[in-house]
Amino acid sequence: MLVIVKDTYEEMSKEAAKIVADRLRKKPNLVLGLATGSTPLGLYKELIRMHKTDGLDFSKVTTFNLDEYIGLPPSHDQSYHYFMWENLFKHINVDPRFVHIPDGMATDIDAFCQWYEDEIKRAGGIDLQILGIGANGHIAFNEPGSSLGSRTRIKTLTKKTIEDNARFFPRKEDVPRYAITMGIGTIMDAKEVILLANGKNKADAVKAAVEGPITAMVPASMLQMHRKATIIVDKEAGAKLTGEFENYG
Ligand code: GLP
To answer: Cα torsion at 80, 42, 92, 165 (round to 10°)?
Structure first.
């Protein structure tokens, strides 16, 4: 695992954007795994800037999002569909036919999850997966206790995640209880992974993921087994790390 500690959120976001742009220039038909949440917003802003000013081309890219709330239609302003179009897709030249986001309104959820897994395979697998991390160590919606080999499926959100995400909804009761999420096994199959974390709220989760034991109770700790994982954090999120990590560039 390569751990990079940057001084600020902006530097963290730019470092991640540099890697995405590099992989995209080397492989124009990159298969990109994408995340939602507040963490990757700076990365998406920088990718939009690169598209607008440097001509970074997304026209051949295929995307797969990690997760989606069950019961929220794409038009709902807290759905991950809405988030992705507002914060990234509508500002770049991605081909809508190549965009994949789990369908939170699917009537047969199991069949949908299998189809999603098959689509990833048909695309040749995910080349680069972007991840955030929950304060309880979750990745996507793989909450503590998730099987480390899990595939795309339905998950119940924990109380902690519902509380953390309540800030985006009018009332806590409005936060959906269930989500469709790629599994930890699905994420581990990505050829490369970048996990981003910022702010002191994430310091314990980052410490546990990077320096703790590999355990289903901290789903992100499974990345210690990944062949090409880069953890990019700001100073606050990296504050509890005791190892000596690089801050280069
Ligand atoms: C959500 C998402 C995760 C995300 C996490 C952290 O629950 N399902 O993919 O990484 O929360 O969100 P934030 O970046 O807003 O802290």
So the answer is: 10
